[in-house]
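dude i think i finally got it to work??
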Amino acid sequence: MPVRPDPTELLRAALSHPGNGSSDFDLNPDAVLPAGRKLRPAGVLVPILVTNEAPRLLLTKRSSALKHHPGQIAFPGGKQDETDPDVTATALREAQEEIGLSSDMPEILGHLPTHETVTSFVVTPVVAILRDGFDPIPEPGEVDEVFSVPLAHVLNPANYIVESRRWRGQRRYYFTVPYGPYYIWGATARMLRGLAARVSE
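look at this
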């Protein structure tokens, strides 16, 4: 049998690199941000499965019934509640609520720099390894699908494409990293692009 690759040390090294955070405005330097805006803290889990022959990244497809970002590809996660001691706890709680992932399963490797969204959240990506398989339980009304993509795909900077669309009367540019039927774009793709850049250093 082939030896199953374990990306743990590679990821730990990548997460140890200093660097600035990212934002939805990185590719749009002409964007004018609202004065006095207040950023709300949020945490997302970046869960990497190492139970198969090759590591895979777990992602969700948001419910098409949601008011905000319906049908988009996202990490499990959300805004920090007052009862959450930190954003890592937020990411773990949200992952349990959204996909049924027990909070004691992920092995936390570290954090990526924060990402500011156009919706005024400052998001901390929490990178974790899952060494045991589990059957996702999508939260009805929030998650339409839980799926995985090869980790190697999202760690390859060559797989990222800059695309654009008109938003609020202006053309906005953003990263995408499509995989099969899944169109991964926006904040999710930007955070993954940051991870890919660190691994490539």
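The CA atoms of residues 24 and 118 lie 6 Å apart.
im so relieved honestly
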